[in-house]
Amino acid sequence: MTGKQLEFDRRIHRLNKKHAKLSRGYRATMRKDGLVVMKPQRVRSAVPAKLLLICLAGLFAFKVFLLSSLGSSAYQYRVDNLALGTPVEKAGAWVMQIDPVSEFLATQINSFIR
Predict the structure, then answer these.
(1) pLDDT tens digit string along 7-28?
(2) How buried is 66 (Cβ within 10 angstroms: 0-12 exposed, 13-18 middle, 19+ buried)?
(3) Cα–Cα distance for residue pair 93/108, rounded to 1 Å
(4) Its pTM surpasses 0.70
């Protein structure tokens, strides 16, 4: 292809991308020279990332608390029993399995308490 054709194709591609972004919502803003320009609005997630991080930290803290209060053998026994259940319980057992970070934090909490 010639240089003019490539330039045209790039411009068409850019315009199609801009059109797709504007189809999800836009707002009109006026530039300093008085020209009204349409800018795409950012699509916000239904669940904020901050809320997901707080839930994840809460789950992790709960896991560390259980591990420190029950002990690793009793905790592992309960997780193994949970893994024998329904698919939802198996998923819960996978999430609640002992990992090195939670085990380390549980031992640190136990040494701090005792």
Answers:
(1) 999 999 999 998 888 888 888 8
(2) middle
(3) 23
(4) no
